[in-house]
């Protein structure tokens, strides 16, 4: 809760100054390798009923493009708390691009089943 309060306070003051941007996936308005680590939290996989595997794949390719080290996608479950059904296929497609993937356990669970993150190491290329 403390992190949420700090974020909201910063967001209110920094958004008007251009510190936050609101692009739409799967296209991001950032140069290649702009960020060390890119986090996609509570978007992909959670909304698997609204977006298909191709949208997730194109979005992750874009996250990998703008990242120097790693992309993290949290959590690895859909909105019902069940593991995303196409996670293995998704990981294979990402690994075919030359990236390594791993499932990381986290010590928090925002909702039931949401205690794992997909890590994608992009600095292998």
Q: What is the structure about, briefly put?
A:
By secondary structure, the chain is an alpha+beta fold. Helix content is 29%, strand content 22%.
Q: How many structural domains?
A: 1
Which whole number gives the mean pLDDT?
91
Radius of gyration: 15 Å
**Biggest sheet overview:** 4 strands, mixed
Give a verbal description of the structure:
This protein has one domain. A four-stranded mixed β-sheet has the order 1-2-4-3. It is built from three helices and four strands. The chain is 29% helix and 22% strand. By secondary structure, the chain is an alpha+beta fold.
Topology record:
Blueprint: H1 2-14, E1 35-41, H2 53-66, E2 67-74, H3 87-95, E3 100-105, E4 116-121
Parallel strand pairs: 1-2
Antiparallel strand pairs: 2-4, 3-4
Question: Notable features of this structure?
Answer:
4 strands, 125 residues, alpha+beta, four-stranded mixed sheet, globular, 3 helices
């Amino acid at each position: 809760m403390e992190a949420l309060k700090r974020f909201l306070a910063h967001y209110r003051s920094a958004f008007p100054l251009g510190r936050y941007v609101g692009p739409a996936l799967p296209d991001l308005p950032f140069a290649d390798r702009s960020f060390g680590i890119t986090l996609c939290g509570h978007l992909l996989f959670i909304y698997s009923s609204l977006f298909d595997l191709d949208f997730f794949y194109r979005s992750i390719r874009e996250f990998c493009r703008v990242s120097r080290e790693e992309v993290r996608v949290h959590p690895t479950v859909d909105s019902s708390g069940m593991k995303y059904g196409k996670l293995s296929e998704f990981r294979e497609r990402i690994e075919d691009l030359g990236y390594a993937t791993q499932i990381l356990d986290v010590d928090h669970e925002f909702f039931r089943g949401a205690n794992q993150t997909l890590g994608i190491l992009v600095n292998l290329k």
